[in-house]
Amino acid sequence: MKNELILILDFGGQYNQLIARRVRECNVYSEVVPFDISIEKIKEKNPKGIIFTGGPASVFGKDSPKCNSKIFNLGIPILGICYGMQLMTVILGGKVEKATKREYGVTNVKIDNNSLLFKDFNSTNNFLMSHTDFVENLPSGFKTISSTPSCPNSGMENKDKNFYGIQFHPEVVHSENGINVIKNFLYEICKCKGDWEVSSFAKEKIKSLKEKIGNKKALCALSGGVDSSVAAILLHKAIGKNLTCIFVDHGLLRKNEGNEVEEVFKNQFDINLIRVNCKDRFLQKLDGVIDPEKKRKIIGEEFIRVFEEEAKKIGTVDYLVQGTIYPDVIESGLGKSSVIKSHHNVGGLPDYVDFKEIVEPLRDLFKDEVRKVGLELGIPENLVYRQPFPGPGLAIRIIGNITEDKLNILKEADSIFREEIANAGLHKSINQYFAVLTNLKSVGVMGDERTYDYTIALRAIETTDFMTGVWSKIPYEVLEKVSSRIVNEVEHVNRVVYDITSKPPATIEWE
Ligand code: XMP
Predict the structure, then answer these.
(1) Which of 343, 344, 346, 387 to mutate to test the pocket of ligand 1 (most atoms within 8 A of CB)?
(2) C or N: which end of the chain has fewer Cβ atoms within 10 Å?
(3) How far is the CA of 228 from the centre of ligand 1 (A)?
(4) Residue 388 CB neighbour total at 10 angstroms
(5) What's the whole-model pTM score?
């Protein structure tokens, strides 16, 4: 069955993925596509509606992104947001002006609730505005449906043609009832029925994987992270023992993590799982290495070697399973910004393995949708909501040279920190938190003895995208408990510090 579809034309705004997610939250499937998508392609996709996103450009810019103007002849409803509204105005013959000052912030907007876009709204509503240019004259056939003192045409409609434009951002949480603007567009204007549900996704995916793969064999690299885990279980439900998972345990995982992965996949789901314990091999390769990028490179390469060796033992497989998710697809398709860290993802594509085709069962899903599918499939909550963990593992949380002793110190300290965060009920509000073993030794006193031992740093970040983030204001009592437990329970640590730097300027990881 083909789902109803909303196409989101990406003009480079920071909230584009969010718009797609909001649409899906309203039970309508959405796809983000480049702004210059061809008319043929749009027809082929046959969307119920189109949304133009915002973007950093100005319609006055020489190279500003423009869609094909024939898009307005297709008879498909269109909603332009911010830059998208301005572009719609210019293409359809209206006038955009440049303001001297940028308007930013939550603004009380006067709205015409006779418009279908604002059905069931009050006559004013608070929305987030963020713009410099604004619509001065509407294109013909349009009328104003919302206004603010500094932006008299903050909303417009051409009801006959189903074209709508808004200067504010309904997709962000700062906009009161923002989701209802999106809902009205989908249900009142595009006449969607709402046939997208994550739970039916799992059922249909398992069925289609079964049909596609049949009795052939598939191989999956398991990292213990959410994406590869959910992909593996989907495949397992579809083809059972014809799936083999290889779990390369490089020994750089958190305390007990390797065993937890094995417990879930081998015992709970009865998956064909090969766990390769190769801590010593990785530690040998990392011996004496202090440069973070070099660590990443060594671990990434060695991971591939181990995987290759194991895959060879299995022989040719028909399919290689990848846990690629939708944001990866969008980002790689639309060009990424500059690389600060190389982010070798252990479990990335091993191009030497003998396989015929790649299967990426999650490539249409956002992270929160992957989590819902995971719960639906019966994967334990602690795995489904696991905080992100870097592929190179604890190697980039031990500053400088890595030894087995240091690894053990860090595992213990980190486990205490995680335990206390959970005890304080903070584990869902802090998005990433962990301990770092610095290479700083300092003087302390324990009982009557002088000590000269390591300093542990604690890191806790609140973020939605992991590209920026703020340090978490953990209550002092929790920090005090963590600190006292770590120095008392972990040998060779006599000092604990808390990292109060946000990102930017610091990164989340210390290496
Ligand atoms: P930074 O330190 O760049 O981290 O602020 C942003 C997010 O990326 C994760 N990270 C990595 N993930 N391989 C990964 O798979 C890596 O080499 C790597 N380095 C950082 C980090 O944990 C955070 O979630």
Answers:
(1) 343
(2) N
(3) 17
(4) 12
(5) 0.79
